[in-house]
Amino acid sequence: MSDLRVGLAGLGTVGTGVIRMLDRRAADLAARTGRTVKVVAVAARDRTRDRGVDLSGLAWFDDPVALARDGGIDVFVELMGGDGDPAKAAVEAALDLGRPVVTANKALLARHGVDLARRAEANGASLHFEAAVAGGIPIVKTLRESLAGNQLERVSGILNGTCNYILTRMLEEKLSFNVCLGEAQRLGYAEADPTFDIDGYDTAHKLALLTSLAFGTQVDADSIYVEGIRQLTLADLEAADDLGYKVKLLGVALRTETGIEQRVHPTMVPKHWPIAQVSNVTNAVAVDGDAVSLTLVGPGAGGDATASAVVGDLTDVAKGGKDFTFGIPVGLLQKAERAPMQRHEGGYYIRLAAVNKPGTAATIAQRMADEHISLESIVQRRPDLADDAAATAHVILITYATTEEAVRRAIAAIEADGVVASLPQVIRIEKD
Amino acid sequence: MSDLRVGLAGLGTVGTGVIRMLDRRAADLAARTGRTVKVVAVAARDRTRDRGVDLSGLAWFDDPVALARDGGIDVFVELMGGDGDPAKAAVEAALDLGRPVVTANKALLARHGVDLARRAEANGASLHFEAAVAGGIPIVKTLRESLAGNQLERVSGILNGTCNYILTRMLEEKLSFNVCLGEAQRLGYAEADPTFDIDGYDTAHKLALLTSLAFGTQVDADSIYVEGIRQLTLADLEAADDLGYKVKLLGVALRTETGIEQRVHPTMVPKHWPIAQVSNVTNAVAVDGDAVSLTLVGPGAGGDATASAVVGDLTDVAKGGKDFTFGIPVGLLQKAERAPMQRHEGGYYIRLAAVNKPGTAATIAQRMADEHISLESIVQRRPDLADDAAATAHVILITYATTEEAVRRAIAAIEADGVVASLPQVIRIEKD
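^ inputs. structure came back:
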């Protein structure tokens, strides 16, 4: 039985989790793969730090690129993060030697995925990244292998636990966004600078990879429309709840007549959808194909869950599995036609802080009609004195399917009319 | 590019669905696998029947065993069903030649899984059965590959669409079991003889396979405790709903101190669990491991969904994938210690049709106390005159965690006391 010698760069919670898991599961993994899967060498910044795992007997590298090139390893695991060097240089070094790579680095793949996939193929190496999207949920394998028989139409997901935690807490505990963000930071769910999570960029990186797997397109994170959750108020979440919806930060990739639409934004989803029930830091991915629609729910982050995905990839490597990085040869990945957000069609929730004077509702309704937007409902809510000046009232509109462009024009016209007191809130609705 | 020549036995909706899917997805599957995956030969009973697919150019076999042995195929797909011959003989014939087999046949594997896995290994063949459990949900691959790093503790699932449809309809439309069963039969969700589905045997077959994959044990369908949904009344579903639960027919396999507990029975699950929201014919599987807990939701049956699973397996075959049938070598599969149902511990819902006379409630409460069963609640419901004689009233007990044995003894004592008018209803509760 030959060993699979693992070189591991990055010794944070995921890296140490992988070391512990490989140790704990050694006998079972040997039974599954016919090989002993063991970490033999590591690279990290600080050699002296106590990480709670025994590193004695493992070769130490200060330079992850040197580890990636070392002749004593069979597979390189990159858990450093970051979309540039040294992660990029180290991954490239391993692939150039035809060595398989397992990574959890969504930022690196979102930016350089096509180049790295090309490099893997050119050198007969394989590049595995189950841990990079939705942590412990096996969505990469599901898209790349299990659903091969399907033409996929849509992939959507709750891909950021921090945002989902904040949205869950706001509604359940009737708290403001800022209070919940502070709580998430205290609990370690959010960074001191939470921009990357709450403004949707983390979700966008993961979505870019799912899009490529689902539609056979080149990874194109730059074409994703991104909107975060910072502007959402408790009043919006409550209004949505009353209307039978939950508000989730979704990443959505959709096949349309004009191309692949990729977008990240707060979304109202019907409560009976499985994804609507997914609360706190849990993630979920829904896939709609011509034969099968699936929803996968599980932990999107955390040391153990991410380590589980890394170890799953390592067992594939040990068994000699060599899938194409994005399912098909990189030369066949299509340049995705970018469906512009203005063309997006769907229902909308629009909340306006309307100036409390005669004719306001009529003005609003007329501007909608001017853009041929049909209204499913229009509700004026009693002003909440804690939130608003007494002179404004919430007007909530729910539209039937229309276009992003029409909604934006109607809102611009309403603002020009001077009947709203602050920026309108717009939340897109996904329906059956 | 070498062809992967498929021989397919069984031309029902799944078989014809596979032929159509391989045709429709030919270019994509070739890109993924580097091979052309095509059906070249088929076997079925009636050669003359019009099945809506073009069979010209395909070799026809009246005998599936002859097809399985034919030198013109590289992989044998068994979609005939049945736990005996000819399905068994045909699968064995292919495996004996070292030929990979893909099957959707849960009954065959539940009964002969260990023998067939041994035969596959002895001959260097592989045996794939993603389609046999929960149709389009990739739970076999998830357990066998993605979660290899986990020690699993529990697998549970809604594995029979017919039962889930009936339970959903009963509660939503306030209908009786028999009315909903009739509706399911009219819609083609249930057979003319629905025993196999509604009495839990279909769920048990699938559970037996999941248990083996999850716990590395020999398939042992005979040790599963099985109870169906026939005895459930609308009153039970409504009472559960009031208490914050949904009633589902679950298959549950659990690692316990005394062995692997395998059971199929109506189960009350908290409404906030993802699995509680799964309605109509949809299936779901929840997996709890030491690193990851996942829930997968999707179609459990139907031609397209099952064909999707078969085609996923065929792409693995085309790529040369050779996992062990149940994840590890058959010689390492443990004989599962059977945890007897009497030892099962959990909460219980007990509904008694109590004789409406003084002292009845006291008698019931005393018998529970005699068995050291703590009650979380005891509710006496107004008699429903449409259902019951005016002389009986429903008494509903919810117990804290206790044992199956204690509950059975308490109920026997209550029955002996003569204070109940009909058979008590018992539903086990799963909790966080």
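Chain A touches chain B through 58 residues (CB under 8 Å). The mean pLDDT of chain A is 93.
thumbs up if we can close this ticket
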